Amino acid sequence: MTEPTSDTLLEVSGLTKHFPVRGGVLQRTKARVRAVDGLDFTVRRGETLGLVGESGSGKSTTGRLVLRLIEPTAGRVVFDGVDVLKLGRGAMRDMRSRMQMIFQDPYSSLDPQATVADSIGEPLSVHEGLRGAKRDGRVVELLERVGLKPQHLHRYPYEFSGGQRQRICIARALALKPDLLVCDEPVSALDVSIQAQVINLLKSIQRDTGISLLFISHDLSVVRHVSDRIAVMYLGRIVEIGDSEQIYTQPRHPYTETLLSAIPVPNPVTQRRRERILLRGEPPSPLDPPSGCRFHTRCQYAMDVCAVEEPVLAPAGRGSSACHLHDYGPGLGGGTVLDLEPTHRPVPA
Amino acid sequence: MSRHTIANDTRANDTADDEIVLSVRNLSVEFATGNGYTRVVDDVSFSLRPRETMGIVGESGSGKSVTSMSIMRLIPTPPGRIANGEIVFAGQDLLQLSELEMRRIRGDRISMIFQEPLTALNPAYTIGNQLVEAIRTHREITRKQATERAAELLDLVGIPSPRQRLLDYPHQFSGGMLQRAMIAGALACDPELLIADEPTTALDVTIQAQILELLRRVQEEFGMSMLFISHDLGVIADVCDRVGVMYAGQLVESSDVFELFARPFHPYTEGLLRAMPQHTAGSEELVPIPGTTPDLASVEAQCRFEPRCRHAVAGCGETVVPLETVGAREVRCLRAHHLELEGAS
Ligand SMILES: Nc1ncnc2c1ncn2[C@@H]1O[C@H](COP(=O)(O)OP(=O)(O)OP(=O)(O)O)[C@@H](O)[C@H]1O
Ligand SMILES: Nc1ncnc2c1ncn2[C@@H]1O[C@H](COP(=O)(O)OP(=O)(O)O)[C@@H](O)[C@H]1O
Ligand code: SF4
Ligand code: SF4
Ligand SMILES: [Mg+2]
Ligand SMILES: [Mg+2]
User: Fold this and answer.
1) From A159, which residue of chain B is nearest by alpha-carbon distance?
2) In this protein, which residues make up the domain named ABC transporter (chain A) (predicted)?
3) Which tens digits make up the pLDDT trace of A213-229?
4) pTM to 2 decimals?
């Protein structure tokens, strides 16, 4: 794991969130969803950390915990040297202006009754007391920064396309010049041609402002383009974290390899020649994650040790991987899993 | 397994006109808007041969679902109406059938699966109940026989302990299992045509890979034709034999899948390929298509892609652009003969 330095903006350790599941007449807690189960990671200034994983792996919960929109069950979130979880109400409000969030659905995250000027201007009024022409002047600057026009100022959300609405959300998130932007699936609802526009916009804003991004997505091929480093999540845990190109081209964890192999390549010649790894069975429930390595019920390389002992994140190439293959069996010693022969083939669909 | 197997073997190499399973001709569909009607599908034509998978790709709102709902005669009328065209299936124009006649075809000879399997199922009935109902709508067999068949179908689509799972309610199934159950239902009466409208869009990529594999397998086993709708060129490259590309309600290009990706004829197809994240190396800027799709209520007769097209010239915005046949392909672009467009990398 990367040690925190003065360059570190965000440091998360042991971050855990268990949601109680209640049932019965007395609404007693019957079980716990282990949505996020002990995460450690850092984000440097000006860096993008991508967070990938399948639905339910805990990505959104992680984003909300970082911004303290929900309280963790355990763990620490240190932002620019300040322990966020220890802050009182007022201090937390000030802190929040430095960390902003944008969401997948640019439709529901804008108030349909509010004009663009009001939506983007709201944080400026609340935090900086700006009103009238002064506020609108700042809003126009922000609109232009995200590729919209001054004449859009007094329009309503329904007058914009999905991509334009996401631009409005980005402008609003940037209004207070935050140091960290948590992007939760910001392009997943957009068409591919518009997806590329929004990603290029986020990157160009990052070049200009030095903002850090925590970029959450289920799509590894998209995450690769925005991220300097990537963390891959499975059932509430980080299974691999490291340099973005390395994760994409030389994964150190079998789950990362599976994810990569499942993304169809837009070229029929290459796509039909590729070897595919078809995962066995259904994703296990986060109510009762498998023993040992949480991926062992579906992993094509699983060994006896995997069902018993939980692997920990250990250095592997330019990153870390939590997998016994590096020490047991083939003894990969930090190399890529692409070099391995599966011990047994997955059963076909 | 299939009642078509033998017939298909004898006609496998023959693609004469009478071998066409489905032919959509000059289909136009409109929806009532504030003042008058807006045409959301405009003059779309394509056909499907036996055992063929035809993909329809295009961005949100381009008319893919409206096209497939038209084939099933499921366009809500009003506000919608089929303004023009024919949909010829097994020698008859579906648009001329009564609702009763159409009901005999739907779910029997033509089946459909959707992006959100949960919305297509009734939460109050077990999976088994719903499968049995689907089978008994079209086949005069006992409940017991139908239950037997339902269990066979669940087994066929890869659901473990099928007999037990028949007793489950939809909410007890994961997204991937629900889509398998939907596929089982669609196969119940051994259809000649399966329409799959974004069947994997709501699923995780690893589950998507399983479902695509399953569709490929059952298509082969049942000898069906498939109309496969998707916005994802990767998925299209994986499963389709031929592809139609839709933009703003029109078919702008149709072609064999290998030819389309190797050398697109329409600038929009090229733009889509270039915008895919896989087109660009990790650290480089992605290549978007500038601008946004036009508002269908105010499109003109000329090329609808012109405002976003990097190959546009002065004449493009002025004339009506017809769909033109070029060998075995079709394209709607004035400059198609002059352009050397970039294919998949
Ligand atoms: N019931 C309806 N009433 C009014 N307009 C409709 C209706 N159904 C569809 N439309 C319009 O028809 C056009 C085509 O819609 P369609 O659902 O076919 O798009 P699509 O290509 O399937 O898009 P997506 O990728 O989002 O599924 C859109 O402009 C849509 O708003
Ligand atoms: N408020 C909540 N109450 C109970 N369970 C929740 C809540 N929020 C999320 N979860 C559960 O936590 C797990 C992780 O969810 P989430 O962080 O949304 O995943 P992702 O964003 O990776 O799809 C899932 O099993 C989800 O159902
Ligand atoms: S620890 Fe074992 S089961 Fe887990 S990913 Fe590694 S090889 Fe697979
Ligand atoms: S007709 Fe002109 S504007 Fe339209 S796609 Fe062809 S080159 Fe582009
Ligand atoms: Mg999420
Ligand atoms: Mg659709």
Assistant:
1) B295
2) 21-260
3) 999 999 999 999 999 99
4) 0.91
